[in-house]
Design brief:
This protein is of the alpha+beta class and 81 residues long. It has one domain: Alpha-Beta Plaits (2-Layer Sandwich). The chain is built from 2 helices and 4 strands; from the N terminus they run βαββαβ. The strands form 2 sheets. It has a two-stranded antiparallel sheet with strand order 1-4. Strands 2-3 form a two-stranded antiparallel ribbon. The longest helix is centred in the N-terminal third of the chain and has 5 residues. It is elongated, with a radius of gyration of 13 Å. The two termini are 21 Å apart. Bound molecules: iron/sulfur cluster (2 copies). One iron/sulfur cluster binds next to helix 2.
Length: 81
């Protein structure tokens, strides 16, 4: 599956909407999100995706974000136990 495969889950973070609370980082068990070391135009250290391949598409980050700053695309990956 390549990057263009729509079934591969990935997220898009609205970096300018982000207020840097870190809830999405805490919510992501895959460590697919981190806080940037630079600030956005609002003056917050914003969240950004670390590695698209890590994302399982679970959507917990989007649910956790109080500013509705994260969108999740693609199908959730089946977790292999
Ligand atoms: S959808 Fe799930 S795995 Fe992907 S970045 Fe969000 S919390 Fe992490
Ligand atoms: S939960 Fe939303 S506002 Fe908080 S750091 Fe993540 S993207 Fe930013």
């Amino acid at each position: 599956m390549g990057k263009g495969d729509v079934s591969v889950p990935y997220i898009v973070i609205d970096e300018e909407r982000c207020k840097g609370c870190g809830l999405c980082v805490a919510a992501c068990a895959k460590k697919a999100i981190e806080m940037a070391k630079v600030i956005n135009r609002q003056g917050y250290f914003y969240a950004r995706q670390t590695n698209r391949d890590l994302c399982s598409g679970c959507r917990l980050c989007a649910v956790a974000c109080p500013d509705v700053g994260i969108q999740v695309f693609g199908k959730k990956k089946r977790e292999v136990p």
